[in-house]
Amino acid sequence: MLFNSYPFILLFLPAVLAGYFWLGRRSNLTPVIWLAAASLAFYATGSWPFLALLLISIAFNYGVGHLLILAKLTSPHRKTALALGVIGDLLVLGIFKYAGFVTENINALAGTHFAVHILLPVGISFYTFTQIAFLVDAYRGQVAAYALPHYALFVTYFPHLIAGPILHHKDMIPQFDRKESKLPDAHLILCGVIIFAIGLFKKTCLADGIQPLVALAFETRSPSFDQAWCGALAYTFQLYFDFSGYSDMAIGISLMFGIFLPVNFNSPYKAVSIVEFWRRWHMTLSQFLRDYLYIPLGGNRRGRVLRYVNLMLTTLLGGLWHGAAWTFVVWGALHGVYLCINHAFNALVPDVPSLLARPVRIAGAVLTFLAVVVAWVFFRAESVAWALRVLHAMADLSNIVFGREEIAALVQVTIYAALVWLAPNTQGIMGYDHASRRVGEDLRAGRMRPLVLYGASLVLAFGILGIQSHSEFIYFRF
For every residue of 209-240, which 3-state class applies, written as one string? Predict the structure, then answer.
């Protein structure tokens, strides 16, 4: 079931909200069970063959976590329990996501003809990483004992289950246990509807609206210079508004239930360095890779060379997390190289004089954006060879068509660029602050109420009218 579908907007979401608040007047636990059951139903509508796998994963990780939290195990036994839990999670993820990729490469090297065809369960990367973080924190003594319904809801909570954000137990489970969130809050519901409307508009009108231009670069066998650039930029902005739209819709839906999700997307193309880009793009994945991979590897504590090695390992694994293909490996490697260059530059180049600060920031923003666009070519291409073909076309100034179609594409890309760099983001418009649990204070105080309400109504109307029969979010593939 898609957020940008009529059944979800008109049937599923209203029914789940009504049941949640009706039960919330009678009990504090029953709404948690209801929401967990609704989340499982949401998952089953599109991935019912893998519902059992999700339930087994929840039971397995809850059991291992229970041992780590409550059982009086010796230190070696605790390490063994953690290792079994993490290896079990990664083994399942590896079989479903990477078995075919490994087999293809073995066939290529050994000349064999083994065939492995395994369907990828939707959301498996997200709920696997969410639970690995839970187990590691349980081993570190940073987790309280949680009831099974609350843990099950933490893993399956439908606003995040399919495409993130990657949630943290310390942030979410206490919110699920709050009695206040079980009662309808008109202000939070209104803010949730507005944020959902903005996200829906981004997805159905902006992301889906520019998607046809992507074919100029990625479905043309020999694209021209202008076609390659227009197609690559179109995908850059399609991915931006697709993922930003999902992130907004997830936050908006969750707010209707009185629950604040972490911000996962913060105008990443406004970054002036690749380090800042990764603090703004898929923020919860960046935090997970930092806290549970980069820092345990040693981070920057063992000298500059090992720091760069750790960065490369982290980004390579981050690339593989997105997909089992060499294109994702190259994408991760590119970002690893970018990060190493960025850190080396910061270490070697002194502070910029104040007179040059603004030009340097502008140059940094342009260079960062161009580096990101080049990496997105590998992210989108069907193969490394196809990506190189597109990049070659992007560098070939001797092959320019610039016909009517290319001019129209350039105009559309320019409009999207203006939206990305000049328009405020959703959390800025709505004053959404996950840490302080505040949103829409200007709206609450009566400031900007007519403007916001009329604008949100218009955006929601356009978003609903723009819904297509089949338009999945790009991150559903990961």
Answer: HHHHHHHHHHCCCCCCHHHHHHHHHHHHHHHH
